Amino acid sequence: MAFPAIFLIIGIGLEKLAGYLKKYHKYLGVIVVGLLLIFGGYQMFTNANLIIKNKVGSYSDLKNVGEWLNKNSFPGEAILSGALPQMTYYSERAVFPNAGNLTAELDLIREKNVRYVVLTNWEKDPPWAFSYFSEPNEFFNPVFQSVTDYGENKMFVVVFEVKK
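Structure (tokenized):
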């Protein structure tokens, strides 16, 4: 919302600067404003390039898990995960969101032929799932994980196979 006002203020300032410098030389205002715009564009380009390069591998855990799921499941099998777009893209399987509670989750597993449940702190998974899956149980077996340590934060993806 603020960008139009900011651009307007900067544009008016550059126009006044160009008008002031025009008094000294016919093209001095155009040259100075052009140089300022080129310098600003270069700064934005280098900053954006740095941000993009830093973010390239940011979802590598989800990619690793999705590729593992692709190799270790059949096309008719489904996956439950909070990371719907990433898991769908990398696993090339049908992916459904986790249910609101364990009973609904078990019903969804039976209904959709789910073979794997993926838990991650990259995307929003239901809070009950973290507490339920942190303890060994009779329905799910952990089979694969990918963890990245970002100093204070550890990002993880854990795959649980549905026991049949």
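Helices lie at 3-22, 28-55, 60-71, 84-91, 102-112, 127-133. The longest strand covers residues 140-150.
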